[in-house]
Specification:
Blueprint (H helix, E strand, L loop, with lengths): L12 E7 L5 E3 L2 H5 L8 E6 L3 H9 L5 H8 L6 E5 L2 E8 L12 E7 L3 E6 L4 H11 L7 H36 L4 H32 L7 H67 L14 H22 L4
Parallel strand pairs: 3-7
Antiparallel strand pairs: 1-2, 1-3, 4-5, 5-6, 6-7
Amino acid sequence: MMITNTDDSGEGLVYALVLDGTGGARQLAWDEVEAWSPEQGALWLHFDYTAENSREWILGKAGLDEIATDALLAHETRPRTIANGDSALLALRGVNLNPGSDPEDMVSIRVWMDGHRIISTRKRKLLSASDIVRLLEAGKGPRSTGEFIVDLADRLTARVEGIIAEIEERVDAMEADVVAGGSQALRSALSETRRDTIMLRRYLAPQREAVIRLSSEKFSWLNEPDRRHLREVADKLIRYVEELDSVRDRASVTQEELVGKLSEQLNSRMYVLSIVAAIFLPLGFLTGLLGVNVGGVPGAGSDRGFLLFSLLLIVVLALQIWVFRKNKWL
């Protein structure tokens, strides 16, 4: 069965699906949504919350309390789980893999669910939701609301792994570049990597707590296999957060080492310039002193004056080099 994405209609209802309990689903139109009853199967409504029709339906016809409606329509959310009787309200985040987007700019999805209905909202397209739709088309999708939230959390988490692996490879390459010598351009690359790591961790840490909280709540529609699967997802999130902490620390150490190398290079150049200045300072003083246009300058009337003065400069230069070497300045 082909499920149509109605997002382009401008009505805000992306998907309206009734799960058949065997891994498939049947698509509904707006008027069929109004006539739905729990006996037909679990209902999944997926909205673009920026559309006016979506906001009107959620506020007026969804039958949710104020906390749930506010969360489903909120522009900014942090991952969390709120239990209210036998219903749950979740805010989750997934990496942004839409074309031309920054993966670290995470996309949010809000989900309210009980044993019979799933109402989810988003602003930008989320590939994990599209994956679930494709599974339902193939008859291999979630069979219940519990399996739905498990699949969604699992797919959101799985896509994070590739982004973290990519960041680790970037840090490995930058560490090798720093060992090889480093450059000023690496400073901005390291700063950007640290920023990406902080942004990912900002949402993954509370998402870990949200999944743990969900697995510990005693919902009638969440069975023990679902809870075990959620605990596995939480374990993955814990590992990813630890990996992000490790990457952040490695990037900080690498940046410090780069700054040290750049400072060492600068100090080496300044040292050479200081030696050159110290050598030419007395020579410049002598040439300046004997080059004044006043009477009484030694050797001014002698044919050998310039030769004698050049020999004097050579002697002074040799004396300076001897003093520098004796004091281990060279």
